[in-house]
């Protein structure tokens, strides 16, 4: 019966199959591989049929990453008529974005809420949570526009700029692809490669690429090209904004923040000769012939600050410097990329802070982070320690997938060679075990606290190390297990790098709301950056989760207050790029019981001492390097004053943020001081 039943429907079935095959044949499929650190970490598949493209996107590095399904319908000019995006962000928050255009009316829903606009001229919607296929959408539309530019929705203007053409080789044979830079969305351009037909071949950056399947072998060369192209941009910005004055420079009528007394001095003049502070003189001291005069107008000079948890790239380097951060501690990077970056900064080719390097060592697992050196034996781990020591690194950093059994030997070798040891708590271990193994510093407050709320076998290589924060509100900080860990830190003279700001963003950011840490600067940023910030990091849709995450941050602050009260040394780092988020990082420690005076001292001279650099950095004194920044206000009275920076000095160069920020689409916070050239 079943057989005969199938026989009766056979002509219909054949017709359906033929129709399906015809549809597939008429569709165009583009497949891409995502590569980070030389490892395939994701895929993108885009199937286009007529005016509609369906996209499958999934990316996972370090146990986390975004995934989404998109459907995009465009008109004959390549402008979206409809765009739907469903999925999850890197840390798990839900995405349900919708865009539609009907006639002259465009409407959309994203994490910021519902919005719309009457479109009186062609405009291109910029999706908030799109996959890298968005580069194909934007470029397809812009290539058809005069001057390759178009107004953007929700705001701003998109521009496409043509660059070099290069040849690539892969399974489908050699291709010529052309570089295009897309601006108007974020603080830096998006760089893509298009083939001769204008179709997307790759989206590239110095650290990662998304490349057409079959051409993965070009990954190293394309990342190198992306780094070179990025360097060209930042070299140009350096030439246009780094001011070098012949002879001495007198910065007159300023007060200095003195981290030794934790107070402001009276009005003085500071003289700079080359890279060094030549003198700090009374205000009424006469100028000498040939000086350049900078009027401090009664403002405050603050020593350059230390960002102690960076993963530095060229944009971060410049923006950190302009934010008053003249030294960063890099906590894990592509070693060759970082070496090149440091060389260019030290040579004055591009702007950036001094860099203190941490050697990143990770265990091999399905969840590995793909930076630094990956190992799968104790001997390999020890060899990695030796490699970093031979190249002058300040410390090693141990990561999540490391076998905990390897750590004591790694620490012993690091200490033998004069390296400090910091890091995450490896999966299936505890902070107590790492302290006993000899860590000098614990990295991230959640890593430190997780051992108090976890059950055996729970895996912190996954997003669990973040979602488990929901258990923190129930934690009793007076419990014996908590106090035991804290006392181990006290007895061992251990330090901690809490990265409070990233935990605030993780637990407090909500869809459609300005993040609490960004209220002072979000309106200064480009439209794409603003929209990205108004997106929750984690999924809070389950009953009780919203309150649990909010309460988790309260418990984190209480824990950091306890650590500070017990005399444990706290270093200030962000893990979020620094710059504006570093300013917020400092503010958060006021909630943990530290005064503005203490915070400024810790961010400057205390950090210089910790890194062994206090002989040349950390305070504004004769003979030290001229690394400092000028603000109009008094940061001792109001720590927020450090956001409004009028001038930054480093390595003999004078930078005025009012000149630099517009090159990133950022509205400046303070005017430049008046400069009177020599003579």
Task: Provide an overview of this structure.
The chain has 679 residues and is α/β, with parallel strands linked by helices. The chain has a domain at 26-227. It is built from 18 helices and 34 strands. The strands form three sheets. Strands 8-7-6-5-4-3-2-1-15-14-13-12-11-10-9 form a 15-stranded mixed sheet, sandwiched between helices. α7 packs parallel to α8 (407-416), α9 (431-437) packs parallel to α12 (480-492) and α13 (500-508) runs antiparallel to α15 (545-565).
Name the features.
679 residues, 10-stranded mixed β-sheet, 18 helices, disordered N terminus
Strand content: 25-35%
The residue ranges in which pLDDT falls below 50 over 5 or more consecutive positions are: 1-25
Structural class comes to: alpha/beta
What is Rg? 27 Å
The residue fraction in helices comes out at 25-40%
Shape: globular
Q: What composes the largest sheet?
A: 15 strands, mixed
Q: What's the gist of this structure?
A:
With 679 residues, this protein is an alpha/beta fold.
Element layout with pairings:
Blueprint: H1 2-8, H2 10-26, E1 28-36, E2 39-49, E3 52-59, E4 67-74, E5 80-88, E6 94-102, E7 105-110, E8 113-118, E9 124-125, H3 134-142, E10 149-153, E11 157-168, E12 175-183, E13 190-194, E14 200-204, E15 208-212, H4 219-241, E16 249-258, E17 263-264, E18 268-273, E19 276-282, E20 292-295, E21 300-303, E22 305-310, H5 314-322, E23 325-330, H6 335-346, E24 354-363, E25 373-375, H7 378-390, E26 395-398, H8 407-416, E27 420-423, H9 431-437, E28 441-443, H10 445-450, H11 464-467, H12 480-492, E29 495-497, H13 500-508, H14 527-533, H15 545-565, E30 569-570, H16 580-588, H17 596-610, E31 628-631, E32 647-650, E33 653-655, H18 657-660, E34 674-676
Parallel strand pairs: 9-10, 16-20, 16-21, 22-23, 23-24, 24-25, 24-26, 26-27, 27-28, 28-29, 29-30
Antiparallel strand pairs: 1-2, 1-15, 2-3, 3-4, 4-5, 5-6, 6-7, 7-8, 10-11, 11-12, 12-13, 13-14, 14-15, 16-17, 16-18, 18-19, 20-34, 21-31, 31-32, 32-33
Helix pairs in contact: 7-8, 9-12, 13-15
């Amino acid at each position: 019966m079943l057989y005969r039943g199938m026989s009766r429907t056979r002509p219909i079935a054949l017709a359906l199959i033929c129709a399906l095959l015809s549809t597939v044949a008429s569709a165009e499929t583009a497949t891409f591989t995502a590569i980070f650190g030389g490892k395939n970490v994701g895929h993108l598949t885009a199937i286009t049929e007529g005016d509609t493209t369906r996209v499958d996107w999934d990316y996972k590095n370090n146990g986390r990453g975004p995934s989404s399904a998109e459907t995009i319908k465009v008109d004959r000019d390549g402008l979206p008529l409809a765009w739907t995006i469903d999925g999850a962000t890197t840390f798990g928050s839900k995405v349900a974005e919708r865009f539609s255009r009907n006639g002259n009316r465009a409407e959309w829903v994203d994490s910021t809420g519902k919005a719309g606009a009457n479109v009186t001229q062609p405009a291109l919607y910029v999706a908030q949570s799109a996959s890298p296929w968005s580069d194909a959408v934007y470029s397809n539309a812009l290539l058809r526009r005069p001057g390759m530019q178009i107004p953007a929705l929700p705001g701003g203007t998109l521009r496409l700029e043509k660059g070099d053409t290069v040849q690539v080789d892969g399974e489908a044979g050699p291709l010529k692809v052309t570089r295009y830079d897309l601006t108007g969305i974020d603080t830096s351009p998006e760089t893509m490669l298009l083939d001769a037909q204008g179709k997307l071949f790759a989206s590239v950056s110095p650290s990662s690429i998304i490349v057409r399947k079959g051409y993965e072998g070009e990954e190293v060369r394309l990342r190198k090209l992306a780094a070179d192209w990025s360097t060209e941009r930042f070299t140009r910005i350096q030439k246009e904004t780094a001011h070098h004055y012949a002879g001495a420079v007198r910065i007159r009528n300023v007060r200095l923040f003195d981290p030794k007394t934790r107070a402001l001095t009276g009005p003085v003049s500071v003289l700079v000769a080359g890279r060094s502070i030549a003198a700090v003189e009374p205000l009424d001291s006469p100028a000498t012939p040939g000086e350049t005069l900078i009027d401090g107008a009664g403002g405050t000079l603050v020593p350059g600050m230390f960002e102690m948890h960076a993963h530095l790239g060229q944009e971060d380097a410049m923006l950190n410097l302009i934010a008053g951060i003249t030294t960063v501690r890099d906590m894990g990077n592509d070693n060759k990329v970082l070496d090149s970056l440091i060389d260019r900064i030290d040579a004055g080719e591009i702007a950036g802070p001094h860099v203190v390097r941490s050697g990143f060592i990770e265990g091999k697992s399905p969840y590995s982070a793909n930076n630094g050196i990956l190992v799968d034996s104790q001997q390999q781990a020890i060899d990695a320690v030796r490699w970093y020591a031979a190249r002058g690194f300040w410390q090693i950093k141990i990561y999540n997938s490391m076998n905990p059994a390897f750590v004591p030997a790694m620490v012993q070798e690091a200490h033998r060679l004069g390296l400090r040891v910091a890091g995450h708590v490896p999966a299936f271990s505890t902070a107590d075990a790492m302290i006993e193994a000899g860590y000098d510093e614990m990295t991230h407050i959640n890593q430190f606290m997780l051992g108090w709320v976890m059950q055996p076998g729970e895996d912190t290589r996954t997003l669990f190390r973040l979602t488990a924060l929901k258990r923190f509100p129930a934690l009793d900080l007076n419990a014996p297990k908590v106090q035991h860990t804290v006392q181990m830190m006290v007895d061992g003279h251990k330090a901690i790098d809490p990265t409070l700001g990233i935990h605030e963003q993780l637990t407090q950011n909500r869809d459609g709301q300005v993040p609490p840490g960004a209220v002072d600067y979000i309106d200064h940023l480009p439209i794409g950056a603003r929209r990205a910030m108004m997106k929750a990091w984690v999924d809070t849709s389950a009953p009780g989760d919203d309150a649990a995450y909010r309460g988790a941050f309260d418990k984190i602050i209480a824990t950091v207050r306890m650590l500070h009260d017990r005399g444990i040394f706290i270093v200030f780092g962000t893990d979020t790029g620094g710059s504006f988020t570093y300013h917020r990082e400092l503010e958060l420690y006021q909630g943990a019981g530290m005064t503005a005076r203490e915070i400024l001292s810790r961010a400057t001279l205390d950090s210089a001492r910790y890194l062994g650099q206090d002989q040349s950095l950390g305070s504004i004194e004769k003979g030290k390097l001229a690394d400092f920044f000028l603000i109009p206000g008094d940061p001792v009275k109001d720590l927020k004053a450090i956001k409004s920076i009028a001038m930054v000095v480093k390595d003999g160069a004078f930078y005025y943020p009012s000149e630099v920020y517009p090159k990133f689409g950022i509205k400046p916070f303070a005017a430049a001081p008046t400069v009177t050239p020599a003579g």
